[in-house]
Amino acid sequence: MIERIDHIGVAVKSIEDARPFWERLGLEIGEIEEVPQEGVRVAFLRCGESAIELLEPLGPESPIARFLEKRGPGIHHVCLASSDIRAEDGRLREAGFELIRTEPTLGAGGCWVQFVHPRSTGGVLIEIAEPIAVEEPR
User: How far is it, in rounded angstroms, from Cα 126 to Cα 81?
Assistant: First the structure.
């Protein structure tokens, strides 16, 4: 079941260059994590019950590097928190929505993640995430 907006992913060329703006708003960057399978470095900034996720490419072949090249810095995706990502995956597939992965995979922040293609959502990349272990929200 979808519970809330978990975070909004923002593509940036450099976390360090983007950091001053977000910190000026009073948000603090937590741990910066590399997710090699996604080709990205991520930094989460808590914002109430949700977060902003800064996404920096690890190299030119990263999906985030391609996004930046095509569209420039900006909102990359909206992530919804789920208590049962496998059930969400099945319901979406059964309803005919286009999912990007064949099954949920491990992502940043110790979560199982799945992405719904923008063609199925009216133009917005949607990530669905479920924490692997029960922990405080990011």
Answer: 11
Rounded to whole angstroms, the Cα distance separating 109 from 87 reads 21
CATH number of 2-131: 3.10.180.10
> For the whole model, what pTM was predicted?
0.90
**DSSP E strands, 1-138:** 2-11, 29-35, 40-47, 50-57, 74-82, 105-107, 111-116, 126-131
56: left (phi over 0), alpha (psi -120 to 50) or beta: beta
Percent residues over pLDDT 90 in the chain: 87
